[in-house]
Design goal:
heterodimer; A: alpha+beta; Ubiquitin-like (UB roll); five-stranded mixed beta sheet; 19% helix; B: alpha+beta; Aldehyde Oxidoreductase, domain 3; 3 helices; 30% helix; molybdenum cofactor biosynthesis (chain B); molybdopterin synthase activity (chain B); Molybdopterin synthase catalytic subunit (chain B); MoaE_sf (chain B); EC 2.8.1.12 (chain B)
Chain lengths: 77, 148
């Protein structure tokens, strides 16, 4: 199932502003591994992962209908 | 008394004007159970980094997630402090140095609750809302803002 990934902040310097579609991403660990292969600069970038607007920790199963977002350190205010 | 709050938009494109802030204060003159207001205003600072001066910060956000999170923060603050009301406005887009980008306004019967609630809300906004700032220098180069 393809998964749509959106990024924000400094990660737009690496992945751009448009959602990136990743094939065969059954879980977040696999997704990140594939993203790291496609975007080597992502490997050392700090971020947390949100699935459907909820921050997740640890490997999380993806169904294909999920909105996955990579969120670098927040800098509001 | 528990109050139900709906998800409100906090984002405004461009800077927050002094007249908007003044109008917001004025609107509270009918809420005579209020005895103290506390206001925090965040202003874009012209930091100088390696000889380059920040001319503006361009703010972006994961808006849907930020509004959901802000709703949770608002509920938690109302549960913790006896507030009469709370208003939060955060800028998006390019905000020039010297302009206001964050306006947090809390009101309660007595000053202590308004002050403490305002401080805690500002801290939580900075730590928990998915918002990013691109510091644009006078020479057009940029770096990504980091919160302390």
């Amino acid at each position: 199932m393809p998964v749509q990934v959106i990024v924000f902040g400094q990660l737009t310097d690496i992945l751009g502003h448009q959602p990136v579609t990743m094939e065969d991403a059954p879980d977040t660990n696999t997704l990140i591994r594939r993203l790291n292969q496609r975007y080597p600069a992502l490997v050392n970038a700090p971020y947390i992962i949100a699935v459907d607007k909820k921050i997740v920790t640890g490997n999380t199963t993806l169904t294909g209908g999920n909105a996955v977002a990579l969120l670098p350190p927040f800098a509001g205010g | 008394m528990a109050t139900e709050h709906k998800i409100r938009n906090i984002f405004t494109t461009g800077p927050i004007s002094a007249s908007f802030i003044a109008d917001s204060i004025q609107k509270h003159d009918t809420k005579t159970n209020i005895g103290g207001h506390s206001i925090f205003l965040g202003q874009v600072r012209a930091d100088v980094i390696d000889g380059n001066k920040v001319a503006a910060i361009e703010y972006t956000a994961y808006e849907e997630m930020a509004l959901e999170k802000m709703h949770q923060i608002r509920e938690a603050i109302f549960a913790k402090y006896p507030l009469v009301c709370m208003h939060v406005h955060h800028s998006l887009g390019k905000i020039a140095a010297g302009e206001i980008c964050l306006f947090v306004f809390t009101s309660s019967a007595h000053r202590r609750e308004a002050i403490d609630a305002c401080t805690e809300t500002v801290e939580r906004i900075k730590a928990e809302l998915p918002i990013w700032g691109k510091e644009i220098f006078e020479n057009e180069s940029y770096q990504w803002k980091e919160n302390r």
